[in-house]
Amino acid sequence: MSVDTHQASAPPPASGPGAALGADELRTLDAHWRAANYLAVGQIYLMANPLLTEPLRPEHVKPRLLGHWGTSPGLNLVYTHLNRVIRARDLDALCVWGPGHGGPAVVAGSWLEGSYTETYPDITRDAAGMARLFKQFSFPGGVPSHVAPETPGSIHEGGELGYSLSHAYGAALDHPDLVAVCVVGDGEAETGPLATSWHSNKFLDPVHDGAVLPILHLNGYKIANPTVLARIPDDELDALLRGYGHDPLHVIGDDPAAVHQAMARAMDTALDRIAAIQRAAREDGATERPRWPMIVLRTPKGWTGPAEVDGLPVENTWRAHQVPLPGVRDNPDHLRQLEAWLRSYRPEELFDEDGRPRADVLACVPDGARRLGATPYANGGLMLRELPLPPLERHAVEVDKPGATMHEPTRVLGDLLEDVMLATADRRDFRLVGPDETASNRLQAVYEASGKAWQAGTYDVDEDLDRHGRVMEILSEHTCQGWLEGYLLTGRHGLFSCYEAFVHIVDSMVNQHVKWLRVTRRLPWRAPIASLNYLLTSHVWRQDHNGFSHQDPGFVDHILNKSPEAVRVYLPPDANTLLSVADHVLRSRDYVNVVVAGKQPCFDWLSLEQAKAHCARGAGIWDWAGTETGDREPDVVLACAGDVPTQEVMAAAQLLRQHLPELAVRVVNVVDIARLLPRGEHPHGMSDFEYDGLFTADKPVIFAYHGYPWLIHRLAYSRTGHHHLHVRGYKERGTTTTPFDMVVRNDLDRYRLVMDVIDRVPGLAVRAAAVRQRMEDVRLRQHDWIREHGTDLPEVADWIWDG
């Protein structure tokens, strides 16, 4: 069997002429690194005796050993060397820590620099605080094992593999003074999203954006297997990274002194090149796309840890991934090895008798907000400014009479977004992202204010490409989401526009962002950030041309499974309600807002003032659409949520007015879908009193819903009138067909809704049998019509509201 091998070049001298570091600086950097390694090991294992002032005993060790050692030494090395260059160059820097479960290292670095104690005053920078630091790690009531919202200086969940680089690029956008360093683990480098995010350098503007310095950390192994990029030959890896548009610098070795020298040289070289690129673009007017530097750091997995345990190799193998010595409390040999391991860092040289870091350890640490754990870029709410939104009256459509005119809602929204782009042209803190769909989703008015960010080659046929643009389009939903998350987390605003069916691609990413928001709401030191706003359009009911593959409304179901204090879902039925909802979500903080709105022409139902009032209620009666009179209770409630369901309910209400004029019909429209939940389960939920007042407690409710019908049942299952609730929605009966045939196939059409009313209102089954038969006949006729003519029935295609 043969394997690919790589040969490291001869290590550079540890110090002396030509070395990047003098003897004193090398000594102090190594002291900081050893101190961070000691603290990382202590967090994984110890709950007492933090300075080893007495021989280690089993009771000093945690009963449950959780955490990950393998990546920590490499992350500690990066933290140490970032401290050095930040201090020397007075840099604004942020680090995105990509490797999973690197928490011990990043917490260690922030404790050493003092930012951890400033954030959590009970974790003092002394022996008592060190003991608490150790015990809290992966301990009930403590902190997670990965980099998390609780970690000062973090904007990236450490267990969320694949998105670190897109987060770093999002952070750098429109922050021209920032260097966003991103440590990419070689395990996460195998994911599709990470592989695509290397292309973000084709969108980074060296004039208005900051820089991203990727550090690909190759320690060779994942949980139980080697990693691909660590096992391909050096020349192949180098060619791959150069193909991505980077100029890689390689740091390889296992001798600490040599690696310190090589890492210092690489950092200095990379930062010098970044400064030169920015200077050429900003001062000399250079327009050629630069080849940005990056660092490939190849050090052993579990470096400086136990070389062998129970006769098996550990350091530089997959066995170093988590807890190298698992049986410390029960196995005396493991206990002895742990103590020897901890003492190998010579803690007495690193901490004084009171447990405080010695001067050598802190010599490289920058001051104040320059510290990685204290940078305001990682607590973006501190930098957030109100978004300058225009008056809605400027963009509202005139509605003198409901249903008399039609507009494309997202095109109307596009005009508002153009104004937002113009108002933020100088401050550059708003971006629109989407996977190649801005114009398709009718938002192209924004191009009048800002083109599409683009640094690669251009042709004469290209339109709206702009080296300084703030519209971001790449055909990777993962990368769009990562850019926007990084942008929001560092203090800016944005909107993600996407085809409804394909936003599912980021399901796992939005999971983590919701969890992040839920945790940060409980951290008083984390300032609120702008909400993550989705505009889902090209939706299920108007993907009749693309067909079944483009028809899936289930993202709403996914979102409403998440933490109710952090998620909101809106289904505006027309252009003015979309404007009102957009204004609300763009002003909001610490939410994930999902707005589902059509891009095809739809009826204008509400004036702007009516739309504002309706959206504020979240759900309400459209008394002008129904046939309730006086004090009489309705015989039936026609409810709707979504633009196409609203149109079908309105058409059904009109048919009922024509054919069953004596029937008292109430029309209820729902914009905020969480209103259906009980108040105790969601902040926007209705009390039972409100719900029964709106939908009644005992009358049939025929609910036409945009998505999967069982969601409405799930939201309203505990209501008194739930057994009277009948929901129509999407039932996975999609194809390439006409718009109206889509609703007929899924039993959401107006004729089916009228039939549902007749079937469920007591006494109508016999009295209105002829009406029901006429409704069924129309459904059968439309089936034959569309197959002959390829268009919908004229009475459907030309329908208008005449209420």
UniProtKB/TrEMBL annotation:
Region entry Disordered, spans: 1-21
InterPro entries found in the cross-reference section: Phosphoketolase, THDP-binding, Transketo_C/PFOR_II, Xul5P/Fru6P_PKetolase, Xul5P/Fru6P_PKetolase_C, Xul5P/Fru6P_PKetolase_CS, Xul5P/Fru6P_PKetolase_N, Xul5P/Fru6P_PKetolase_ThDP_BS
Domain Xylulose 5-phosphate/Fructose 6-phosphate phosphoketolase N-terminal: 24-382
PROSITE patterns named in the record: PHOSPHOKETOLASE_1, PHOSPHOKETOLASE_2
Protein name: Probable phosphoketolase
Enzyme class: lyase
SUPFAM superfamilies: Thiamin diphosphate-binding fold (THDP-binding)
EC number: 4.1.2.-
Organism lineage: Bacteria, Bacillati, Actinomycetota, Actinomycetes, Kitasatosporales
UniProt keyword list: Lyase, Thiamine pyrophosphate
Family according to the record: Belongs to the XFP family.
Gene3D superfamilies: 3.40.50.920, 3.40.50.970
Residues in Xylulose 5-phosphate/Fructose 6-phosphate phosphoketolase C-terminal domain copies: 599-801
Residues in the signal sequence: none
One Pfam match: XFP
Cofactors that this protein relies on: thiamine diphosphate
